[in-house]
């Protein structure tokens, strides 16, 4: 290709210290692009030569401006977010500042510095909030904000709308317009993923994974990190003139394109590490109540002891209620082709990092767990009692 027509491109990745942002940065580097990773903390792995890391907080406009200084950035991947899982989900102020305030800062600096392309990493959850969705597509409306059970999804929804509305806005430097698109990925997995998989493995290892819940026919979706990387690179191309700017202003669902029962998806991981897959199945409503109580307890006690809630209501929905989306639009417009992956390399990653049960040992006994199980049974009995009986207690 003629180097004058396409000078070497510089991209900035917010959240570039995280699992996905870092993988994307490494993949982009391989394609010959200059990569700047912007994050509050460095990646867990060593940064390959040729990739720059800029430390800064997306909540502070001055940090964002500093990151864009001195480089002619032509594309931004805005991945940084807060509050997706675990106890993080319950810190509302921080979630709002990072997800909404941070996105405002990025949009403002893109316009000011004349960055023509922005790809926002969104989530299924801007549409899904516990309702059954089968093969949904991008024509589905956003979930009304007040129906989001969690702050993360609500703020991601607000931010996605801001990003898509910013499509077509004038750049202050040079001429032309900002073009934006949003990718809405399913749950991400891959070797070395640090957010969901270690939590699942720790539950398995502590003997807490003793039951599954919900309808065995319920289907959800996942996306392998490398498929998501591919989708992001394709989306950045599809915002360019030579692709007719086809992606400008557009959202896309991105997944492996293989709906699967949440728990069955993790079976190879549980069994691959030498544990028994649970055979008890509890009703979804019961687990939802339990998650609600856990969140209440965290709300009341969290200031004294910021414990990791076992499950939140959003996590119960995400894992137990059918929701999957068509990837046709991404295939057609971006040229996205989901590669087949399984959990084998994830199993190998955990074994290489000292996990996995040595043969012969028993499932660990856990008093806490037994107490929880009894509590669940008590709750389920109470929910069946007529309310007059409970009121008279
Ligand atoms: C995004 O902006 C471009 C440039 O102004 C415009 O041509 C395109 O129609 C916009 N996309 C949407 C979905 O509004």
Descriptive report:
With 393 residues, this protein is of the alpha/beta class. The protein has a domain at 10-194 and 222-261 and 323-342: Rossmann fold. It is built from 13 helices and 13 strands. The strands form four sheets. A seven-stranded parallel sheet has the order 3-2-1-4-5-7-11, sandwiched between helices. Strand 1 (10-14), helix 1 and strand 2 form a beta-alpha-beta unit. Helix 2 (61-68) runs parallel beside helix 3, helix 3 packs parallel to helix 4 (151-165) and helix 8 (284-301) runs antiparallel to helix 9 (313-320). The longest helix is centred in the N-terminal third of the chain and has 22 residues, at 92-113. It is globular. The chain starts with 9 loop residues before the first strand and ends with a helix. The model is unreliable at 1-5 and 387-393 (pLDDT under 50). 2-acetamido-2-deoxy-beta-D-glucopyranose binds next to loops. One of its GO terms (biological process) is steroid biosynthetic process.
């Amino acid at each position: 290709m003629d180097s004058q027509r396409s000078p070497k491109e510089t991209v900035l990745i917010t959240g570039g210290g995280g699992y996905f942002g870092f993988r994307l940065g490494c993949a982009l580097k391989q394609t010959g692009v200059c990569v700047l990773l912007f994050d509050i903390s460095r990646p867990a792995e060593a940064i390959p030569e040729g990739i720059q890391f800029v430390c800064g907080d997306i909540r502070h406009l001055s940090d964002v401006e500093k990151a864009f200084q001195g480089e002619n950035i032509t594309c931004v991947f805005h991945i940084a977010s807060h509050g997706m899982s675990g106890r993080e989900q319950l810190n509302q102020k921080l979630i709002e500042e990072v997800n909404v305030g941070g996105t405002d800062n990025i949009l403002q600096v893109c316009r000011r510095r004349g960055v023509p392309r922005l790809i926002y990493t969104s989530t299924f959850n801007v549409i899904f909030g516990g309702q059954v969705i089968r093969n949904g597509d991008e024509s589905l409306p956003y979930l009304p904000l007040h129906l989001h059970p969690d702050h993360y999804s609500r703020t991601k929804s607000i931010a996605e709308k801001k990003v898509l509305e910013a499509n077509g806005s004038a750049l202050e430097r040079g001429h032309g317009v900002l073009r934006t698109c949003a990718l809405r990925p399913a749950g991400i997995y891959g070797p070395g993923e640090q957010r969901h998989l270690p939590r699942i493995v720790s539950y398995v290892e502590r003997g807490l994974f003793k039951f599954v819940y919900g309808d065995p026919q319920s289907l959800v979706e996942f996306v392998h990190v490398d498929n998501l990387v591919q989708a992001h690179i394709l989306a950045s191309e599809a915002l360019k003139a030579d692709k007719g700017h086809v992606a400008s202003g557009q959202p896309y669902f991105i997944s492996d394109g293989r709906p699967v029962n949440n728990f069955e998806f993790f079976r190879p991981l549980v069994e691959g590490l030498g544990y028994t897959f649970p055979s008890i199945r509890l009703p979804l409503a019961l687990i939802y109540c339990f998650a609600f109580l856990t969140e209440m307890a965290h709300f009341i006690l969290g200031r004294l002891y910021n414990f990791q809630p076992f499950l939140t209501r959003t996590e119960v929905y995400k894992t137990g209620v059918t929701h999957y989306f068509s990837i046709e639009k991404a295939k057609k417009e971006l040229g996205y082709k989901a590669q087949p992956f399984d959990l084998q390399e994830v199993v190998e990653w955990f074994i290489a990092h000292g996990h996995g049960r040595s043969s012969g040992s028993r499932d660990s006994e856990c008093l806490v767990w037994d107490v929880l199980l009894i509590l669940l049974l008590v709750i389920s009995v109470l929910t069946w009692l007529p309310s007059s009986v409970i009121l008279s207690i």
